[in-house]
Amino acid sequence: MSSPVKASWLGDEWREFRTYPRMEKAYQRLDKGDYAGARQWLEEAYNIDPRQRKATLALAEVCSRQQDAQCLSRLGKDWLHRAPNDGMGYLLQAWSAYLSHDDARVLQLAPEALTRSGLTPLARTKVADVWMNAAIRQGSVTQIQKTLAQIAQYRIVLPHALLAQVEAVLQSAKSNPTFSAKLLPSAMSSIAATIKPKKSPHVVQRDLPTPSSALQAVVLFPYAELPAAQREAQISAEFSALIATHQYVELQRKLAQLRQANLWTPALGELVSNLLQGKNCPLLVKVTPVSDLPSQTTERSQMAAAYCSRENYQRAAAYFAAANQLSQRKGHASVQALQGEGEALLAMGETERGMQRLDQRLQLEMDETQARALAKLALQHLDLAVSADVAAHYPDYFPAGELALQAARKAKQDGDSAAADTAYQQALAANSSGLLWYEYAGFLQQLQRHEQQGAALAQAAQLAPNNPQILAEYGFWLKGQGKVEQALGLFRAALAQDANRKELNPEIAQLEMALGKTELAIADLRLSIDHQAEIQTRWGLDAAAMQTQLFGWQRNVQTLEDRWHWSLSSQVRLNQGPDARLLSSPVQFAQYGGALNAEVAYQLDPLLDIARPTTVFARTDASLQDQSVRLLNHHANFGVGVRQRLLTDYVLMGSAEWIYRQGAPYTQDVMLRLSGSHSINTDWQPAKSQWTSVTVYGDAAGLIRANSYYLTALAEVGEHYRLADAGKTTLMPYINSMVAMNTDNEQHATVSRFDIGVGLALVSWLGGDPWRAPDLQQRIALEVRQAIGGNSDDRFSVLFHWSISH
């Protein structure tokens, strides 16, 4: 075997492997009458292997059941493009033409299909079926005779039911003056030639009855010789009796005899349908094929079969469509048939076609309930062209402003902001509701038109004062605008309307803090902590993010409740400093020797707001001997003062302090001080095992009587490593750099220093409970500093730090 042949064989096998399960699933759907579901699987199989005849024919059959002529036309064009000399393409084109009622094209294409190779016996039978039905539909006895003769030449077995229809047409032609007596025998010989089936060596089959036996059956039928009116009366009476006594097997036998004797009429079919409806729907459907030919059925028969097919939407739609076609042949459309077909199409997922039928039904006969239902459906499917027609035909049945609203939503989805804005305003002009203003506010937020967004939210809140979502959203907007009291009122109103919205408690607490309502803020923070699980669900936070949020609430409770603050710190110089000693500095960060510091402070009610607290404090600084914790005589500071935080971002502080120190030129002095700091991640991080902390500090202090100053700047970066099983404790290596200068000496000479330090610190956070964060922070550090600039004699130092603060 050559490589290309092998590759082709493998490819065919692979495609067969892929299409087989899809075909099986399609057949399962077909067994249940689910044509839409079967078509999805058949389309997949066809796309995998378009050359497979079995899949193509099955898909074509489903498209035919769905009355989808375009599908058949597409399949035919694809096949003709791939294999122009194959009969399959012409079969599919003929089939499409038949569904489109283009019988002349069917009569042209069918012979083209049968003269070409490649058709399976099933496909050849389908060609003949379509060809014969097109000839019958044309109603020309001559054309029927010609078609029968041509089909007989190809030795194709026509379905017996189709032959019976042919015989019925030929029989009825006897009453036509132009009927030729030679027609029937020639037709019968053609039929006889086509209905002799091949016998299988494995399966014993009965020969189908020949037309001659059918003619004999006419003679044998009990009422064959009676006049037409009397015969139909007798048959009607007998069939009525059989149905009344539920003798359905005998009824089917009689019906078969009647068809074989060419005595079947559409009127008898309607009688059977009327009698079977409500008694035996499966049998009614079985004996009533879908047809729109007046020579075969009536509108009433098709409608009865349609009502009996309510659970099979595909079949019901076909019956209703046939009933409407029959009605239109009489010069008018059927309201009931259009209604039934439309509802069946909707049920099977054919939304656009279903809406078209219902639109046609309403144009024939207006029904307010149906019009409102169709308008509602159009609003749900504005992307369909038929929805625009519905809106144009029945504008009064759409809710006020609803069309404009849906147009606005579609324009927004399409990215056309200008069109969406115009449509929203039209909708609001027609129906100004709180929910619509709220939706419009959300659209304005997307466009970053924040001022207009606020106005829209105000309108929404005014029109819907009991809607907690609208109230809360307006509250968030006001909060963003700095309108704290108004935002707080809206948050409280929203929570009053919906007590389950616990996520508003933290927002309320934050605003109460900003307004200095400490006790209320503490209560709402504690309430937030109690309902943390509900808030986490509403916010959609993961466990780590919620842990961080919870710690923030606990820290706020601790800060608000504790007005007293104190700190103790010490610094021990571990190496020997220079002989020339400087006076102890009143500024902690300017010290390079040993020192002991203590401070106690009390936070007053804020003069401005809670974000800018006012604090009174008292502190003392004492110098230590090098390499010792012994106090250095005559080197101590004592001070009291008032701090006022000036900026709300907790960066800048101003203070005035009274200083008392022995050994200085002025024992008592007043120090004016401005300092600022900014810290990142210096507090405990509950959800992290490692984090970076940064501190930036600046200080400027001036002594009034001594006429001297201190300037200090410090930057420190450290990396915290959480210690397992050690509570809230981290090990932090760090690096820092400091610039300091002062003129606090008798000569008012400037003493400066620029250095770099590295250290290792153990940091612990102690205390706290379920509602409070730890209120003690301890830091123990060993640090080495090297001066790299300035005129200070102290160039290198090794320092031990310890501090605890509350």
Offer a quick outline of the entry.
By secondary structure, the chain is α+β, with helices and mostly antiparallel strands. Helices cover 52% and strands 19% of the residues.
What keywords describe this structure?
806 residues; alpha+beta; Lipocalin; twelve-stranded antiparallel beta barrel
Tell me the overall shape.
elongated
Tell me the β content: 15-25%
Number of helices: 31
- Please report the total strand number as a whole number: 12
Annotated CATH architecture of the domain at 562-805 = Beta Barrel
CATH topology type of the domain at 562-805: Lipocalin
Domain Bacteriophage N4 adsorption protein A C-terminal: 638-791
Pfam families: NfrA_C
Organism: Deefgea salmonis
Protein name: Bacteriophage N4 adsorption protein A C-terminal domain-containing protein
